[in-house]
What we know:
Helices cover 42% and strands 17% of the residues. By secondary structure, it is of the alpha/beta class. The model has no long low-confidence stretch (mean pLDDT 95).
Amino acid sequence: MTDRKPYGIVDVHGHIGLWPYPPQNHSFSDADEMAADAGIEICVVSSAKAILYNMQEGNRELFDELPDYPRFRGYVYVNGSYPEASVSELENYGRHPQFAGLKLHGAYAGKLVDSEDIAPVLDAFGDLRAPALVHTYSATEARALARAADQFPGINFIMAHAGGIEYVEAIEATRHLPNVYYDFCSTWALRGKVEFALQQVGTERILFGSDLTLLNPWFALGMMESVQADEDVKRKILRENAMRLFAIA
């Protein structure tokens, strides 16, 4: 197991709630224990229920519980198949003191981030000046994100999973866009992908995401520890870049 860092890590990609996969430790208290063990000071989470089943109910439960867990910030999940309801969700939670941004999962919603149905949601979201975490596990999803980032230059997009096993194509499709950031949590560790991103986009746009509670954060931390880069670069990835992006004091 990799050693804990001498500073608090900021994790930009977490979840609360049950998934149709083996891990069963899915509550806020489970996530809090996982994060504390891994040295994660701040973790931004979305609701699995909102993503998989019921957007409104999942968002409500997440933001109702957040005040009891100061380690966490919340993403509002929005669904391009329900644009009007999604805008209402942003209105409901965009001013919550622990609100941190927007979460999109086009693979489950059936609407990629560049869909015309999502445009009014992103229009409304732009006023909140917060990042949008977008599930991106393929080059196709990455190209959609590139089009959305070009259309909405005032929004900072986080490419969740950085394209998965198609990370080369994903990064090449988006590297010219200064408002696209990358997190590499994945079940595929794939040695060398973070180094490739560092070569293509530099250090300022790479973030740490763990995918807890779906994955144990030590898996992503171990992957990051193996990156061939000095400790100053790793500190930016594990903490400083996210602190700046989310305007965390």
